[in-house]
């Protein structure tokens, strides 16, 4: 497949949605460029492009919570990717299984859904 057929934005990035291959739970969303997509396809584990740090990052490199790619899809506009993965541990850097653990209630309050699987300070170091 010619990966240049994917429609990257003006920064050369495309949104990548990551979903649990077994139960369909949406785990996270991050960005990829063509090189990180190539690395993901070559290794079978997810690699992303950090917009803030301007570097590649291998999901789970620090935490051990890797994502093994089972299937890859792109949408009909070719501007969004969907990865169905086998998630080891938590996907969220805050320690939760999914990054989507904040539920907004109709009254404006926020409820945290799910339990923390790890302490981010212990895995990544104390954040200032």
UniProtKB/TrEMBL annotation:
Family matches, as Pfam families: PRA-CH
Pathway(s) where this gene product acts: Amino-acid biosynthesis; L-histidine biosynthesis; L-histidine from 5-phospho-alpha-D-ribose 1-diphosphate: step 2/9; Amino-acid biosynthesis; L-histidine biosynthesis; L-histidine from 5-phospho-alpha-D-ribose 1-diphosphate: step 3/9
Location (main, coarse): cytoplasm
GO terms (BP aspect): L-histidine biosynthetic process
Domain Phosphoribosyl-AMP cyclohydrolase, chain residue ranges per copy: 28-101
Ranges in coiled-coil conformation: none
Broad EC category: hydrolase
GO CC field: cytoplasm
Ligand binding (Zn(2+)): 76, 92, 99
Keyword Glycoprotein: no
Binding site for Mg(2+): 75, 77, 79
Subcellular location: Cytoplasm
Subunit: Homodimer.
Entries under HAMAP family matching the protein: HisI
Function: Catalyzes the hydrolysis of the adenine ring of phosphoribosyl-AMP.
Protein's recorded name: Phosphoribosyl-AMP cyclohydrolase
Organism encoding this protein: Pelotomaculum isophthalicicum JI
Lineage summary: Bacteria, Bacillati, Bacillota, Clostridia, Eubacteriales
């Amino acid at each position: 497949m010619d990966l240049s057929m994917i429609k990257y934005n003006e920064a050369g990035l495309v949104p990548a949605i990551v979903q649990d291959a077994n139960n369909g739970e949406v785990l996270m969303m991050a960005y990829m460029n063509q090189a990180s997509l190539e690395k993901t396809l070559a290794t079978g584990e997810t690699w992303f492009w950090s917009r803030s740090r301007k570097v590649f990052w291998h999901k789970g490199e620090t935490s051990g919570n890797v994502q093994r790619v089972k299937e890859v899809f792109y949408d009909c506009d070719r501007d969004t990717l969907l990865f169905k993965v086998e998630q080891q541990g938590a996907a969220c850097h805050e320690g939760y299984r999914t990054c989507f653990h904040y539920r907004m209630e109709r009254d404006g309050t926020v409820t945290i859904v799910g339990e923390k699987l790890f302490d981010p300070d212990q895995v990544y170091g104390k954040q200032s």
